[in-house]
Amino acid sequence: MRPQVQNSAIPEAAVSTDFEVTERRFQARGLIILFLLSALVFFAFNYWHAGSQLPGVLVVMTALVLLFPALLLSSKEKLLVQAESLILWFALISSLIIGLTAGPTGGLSSAVAFPFLALHLKGRRRGLQWSMAWAIILFAGMQIAAQFSLASAQNERLLWQAGVALLFYIGIALMLNRAVGAGQNSDEAAAADQGNKEKLAYLEQIAYHDSLTGLPNRLCFIEILDKEISLAQERGHSLMLAHIRLQRMFENRSIIGVEASDRLICNIVATMTAAVGSRGVFARVRRDEFVCVYRQHSEEINATEIIKEILAFRLEYKIDDFAVQVSHTIGVASFPQHAQDAVTLLHKAGQAMLQAQFANQNLAFYDEKQEQHFVRSHMLFSKLQEALRKNGLSLHYQAQVDLRSGTIIAAEALMRWIDPISGPVSAAEFIPIAEKSGLIKPLTLWAMREAFGQLLRWRAEGLNLSVAINIPARCIMEGEVVDELRHLFRTCNLPAGSVILELTEAMFTDTPAALVQIVASLHKMGFRLSIDDFGAAQTSLSCLKDLKIDELKIDQVYIRGMANDGNSRAIVQSTIQLAHNLNLRAVAEGVENPRTEKLLQDMACDVGQGFYFCKPMPADVFSQWARAWQINKRAALSA
Predict the structure, then answer these.
(1) How far apart are CA 216 and CA 629, in angstroms?
(2) For residues 50 and 44, what is the distance between their CA atoms, to the nearest angstrom?
(3) In sequence order, what DSSP letters do the residues of 355-419 get, joined into one string?
(4) What angle do CA 374, 375, 381 make, to 5 degrees?
(5) Which one-letter DSSP state was computed for residue 618?
(6) What is the DSSP-derived secondary structure letter of residue 154?
(7) Phi, psi of 367 (to 5 degrees)
(8) Residue 576: partners with Cβ closer than 8 Å, 6 or more residues away
(9) 3-class secondary structure for 166-201?
């Protein structure tokens, strides 16, 4: 486990930088004030005692021109370097004035401090450049003064002594600056080294641990799991990895708020880690997902007990007066049975968790066959997206026949998909994938538009049929789907009853008031409503009484078995009678032989559908078949 550190290293670094800037600003302003006072004192001395006002006036004017702007610039961090340069320019010019007016002795006495000042403000490299430039300027100035007698007479020897002395002071200033800098650098290096260690520890903490719970994150847990696998291999024992997903945490977060949700997570972690103790190591791999590795190296710890323990987690809390109960789904994989390395073992435990979730179970052990199914489902999901985007889907149509007259009255639109690589994919396989992945709504919208367009084309050709469209349970509650149905019906200007919406029975087992209203509004628009697969679920009679529907479509399981099974015949007979008693039309799907058709006719079933009449066909093939059927039927009647 990696060490946890306080989160203070980085803020301290920022504070030290601010302190350095503040110290430079304080020094600059102190020098400005000192030089201003010195200029005034120099002016006063020259005015009252030296009998010459010119040097003092020039120094004061230089101070006003350079030091006051420097004072203003020092207030801004970005302009602090310019303020320091102005201070040096004042020192240089004022020393030059004194040297020109007072001679080499006076110039040297006022200039020896300049190298110390330059090295202090600008550092060794830039300070040395300022100092050498100043030495050249001052030496040239003193020569000019001596040559033109601008100051009192000085001999040539004194002039050279002054220049050598100035170079000597530059060397002393440079050495002192280097010595002090070395001491400061050593202290700064030690402080920087400590700061870097703290930064690295802090970065390591946030890189390897969850910021909210302090648990190892996925990156850290993989390292832990690698070590556990190595130990298990050496000692000959097994490991069990549990992948736990908390359910409905998004809904809980929306109800109790983000801060309370964070406290809930911390409480859950405390419960789980206390229950596991030292027998396992917990980690948080995603927002609502945790993993725990158990070491099964003694008789006291076995898989059955561990599973019971995980399933027994009671995640019930009271957060800000809200009673919160959190359920969880668990996937389990083990070493060495399912994987030999950490990443693969973690992956397979996650696969097992997803298998449990898709099966609406609390727990699932890793199953290779299930993983293959999961991988195929994921692959088909990607291909289905592409097929929907590139018009790779089509609708086939299967006839619905009036069992009294034998005429075709409608065609059910059925989705078909032929993948360019793997070939035809059964609707029984790709429709559940679409429902689980959220693709079912765009698929349904596409099928609706295609079916409405085909219905218009048939009617324009003189083929007066109705079209039945399957509307999945998730879509009927979608406002976008209902709005599109309304738009299509009005735009196509179709007669009432020409479009049949087949709704699966399962959605009516627990009928919310909103669904009853939606069905009533669709019925009012002119749609015929059919309950599909009737008998597969348990629709209540009160539901049938309240719903505005037009027909019951009996589940084909009973229709296919009725020729040889008396119980199936009894169920079909009672369902037809129920439909008629409720003034509904009875539709039988799955008619595959003439005996079944005869039995349904004897029971007074209204409509039949199945392979006995025709298989699902593309629209153009269906059109030809339907016309031929109608012609043959009329010929049979006339004969």
Answers:
(1) 70
(2) 9
(3) HHHHTT-SEEE--HHHHHHHHHHHHHHHHHHHHHHTT-EEEEEEEEEETTT--EEEEEEEEEEEE
(4) 90
(5) E
(6) -
(7) -135, 120
(8) 554, 586, 603, 604, 605
(9) HHHHHHHHHHHHHHHHHHHHHHHHHHHHHHHHHHHH
Residue 260 in tokens:
């309370």
12 CB-near residues (< 8 Å, 6+ apart): 195, 198
Let me know: does 66 contact 89? Beta carbons within 8 Å: yes
What is the rounded distance in angstroms from the CA atom of residue 295 to the CA atom of residue 224?
12
- Per the CB < 8 A criterion, the answer to whether 408 and 629 are in contact is yes
Sign of CA dihedral 601, 606, 611, 614: positive
- Strands (E) across 423-484 are located at 423-425, 466-471
Domains of the chain (ranges, CATH numbers) = 9-197 (no CATH), 218-366 (3.30.70.270), 441-628 (3.20.20.450)
- 168 residue type, one letter: F
What tens digit of pLDDT does each residue of 10-54 get? 343 343 455 566 777 777 777 778 777 777 777 777 767 655 667
Q: Of 373, 376, 369, 330, which is closest to residue 353 (Cα–Cα)?
A: 330
Residue at 222: amino acid letter: I
CB environment 471-481: b (16+ within 10 A), e (fewer): bbeebbebeeb
CA distance 623 to 629: 10
Does this model's pTM top 0.85? My answer is: no
**Chain position carrying tokens 């994987």:** 339
- Write down how long the chain is: 639
Residue 508 is classified by DSSP as: G
For residue 136, give both structure tokens. 């050249």
Q: Which residue has the tokens 């919310």?
A: 512
The token pair at 4 is 């946890």
Q: Do residues 507 and 476 lie in contact, with contact meaning Cβ atoms separated by under 8 Å? A: yes
411: amino acid identity, one letter:
A
Structure tokens at 92: 């240089």
> Is-cis flag, bond preceding 55, omega within 30?
no
Query: How many helical (H) and strand (E) elements, i.e. helices and strands, does the chain have?
Result: 21, 17
**Element (H or E) spanning 501, and its range?**
strand 499-504
Q: Is residue 294 helix, strand or coil? A: strand
Structure tokens belonging to residue 2? 């990696």
The model's pLDDT over 578-630, given as tens digits with 9 standing for 90+, comes to: 999 999 999 999 999 999 999 999 999 999 999 999 999 999 999 999 999 98
Place of tokens 């220049």: 163
pLDDT tens sequence across 486-534: 899 888 888 888 999 998 866 666 556 777 888 889 999 999 999 988 8
Q: Which two tokens stand for residue 11?
A: 């803020």
Neighbour tally for 170: CB within 10 Å: 22
